[in-house]
Amino acid sequence: MKKVAFIALSLSLLCTGFANAQEENSNSFKKWMVRVRGVAVIPSECADIGIIGGDASISNTVIPELDFTYFFTKNIAAELILGTSKHDVHTTASDISAIGGPSKTDVNLGSVYLLPPTLTLQYHFMPEKCFKPYVGAGINYTIFYNVDGGNTVKDVKYDNAFGFALQAGLDYKINDKFFINIDAKKIFLKTDVTVDASNLSPGLSIPASVNIDPWLLGVGVGMKF
């Protein structure tokens, strides 16, 4: 009976020690990161424009960006990226001779804001080192808002759209809490655009399919907690 009690007590202590070790291991790293970056948004645009032809031109811009990262393990994490950008838009080499204009000209399409929340799943290499590279892939949903069609056409409509994102970056550890970050993302984004040019010719509506496909190149600082 004493032997049974001893074995039971030993197994109980062993299981307790194993559980405590597992808990300690699972909690031995900070699971949240927050970063603030300055990000250059650089579209790699091309377009298929109906009726007037030509291509699209979308301006570059620099924005602040905020992101939150949650670590499932020391290597695997999910990152939610938040930011918004404003871009000026115009066509290039379009033919508007049918309405009395030149056969090769740029058409001002005003400006538009983009809100592109992006969620990526990441793999972090060498999590214990000072230099911590990572790669990621995920999805994006871009909302177009505050559209200003400019002074040439009556209105411009952009369809909200899903896209895909690829990511690579590096965190440099300053101390156990703070770090410096550099990050590059490529978002593959396509939207359908409708230009209401009825002010130029009655009933004139110009359809376009536009690949925006921006690069997002960022530098910032972050905190772990």
What does this structure look like?
The chain is mainly beta and 225 residues long. The chain contains one helix and 14 strands. The protein has one helix at residues 2-26; strands spanning 32-42, 46-49, 55-58, 61-71, 76-82, 85-92, 108-115, 118-124, 131-148, 155-158, 161-173, 178-196, 205-211, 215-224. The protein has an eight-stranded antiparallel β-barrel with strand order 1-4-5-8-9-11-12-14. The longest helix is centred in the first third of the chain and has 25 residues, at 2-26. The radius of gyration is 26 Å and the shape is elongated. InterPro entries: OMP/PagP_B-barrel, OMPW. Pfam families: OmpW.
Widest sheet: strand ordering: 1-4-5-8-9-11-12-14
Main beta sheet, described? 8 strands, antiparallel, barrel
**Count of discrete alpha- or pi-helical segments spanning 4 or more residues:** 1
Order of helices and strands: HEEEEEEEEEEEEEE
Average pLDDT, all residues: 90
- Helix content class: 10-25%
Q: Identify low-pLDDT runs.
A: 1-26
Structural class comes to mainly beta
Gyration radius over CA: 26 Å
Overall shape: it is elongated
How much of the polypeptide forms β-strand, as a percent range?
over 45%
Alpha-carbon distance between the two ends: 50 Å
Number-wise, the strands total 14
For this entry, give a set of tags.
OmpW family outer membrane protein; disordered N terminus; 225 residues; 58% strand; single chain; 14 strands; OMP/PagP_B-barrel; mainly beta; 1 helix; eight-stranded antiparallel barrel
Give a short summary of the structure.
The protein has 225 residues and is mainly beta. Helix content is 11%, strand content 58%.
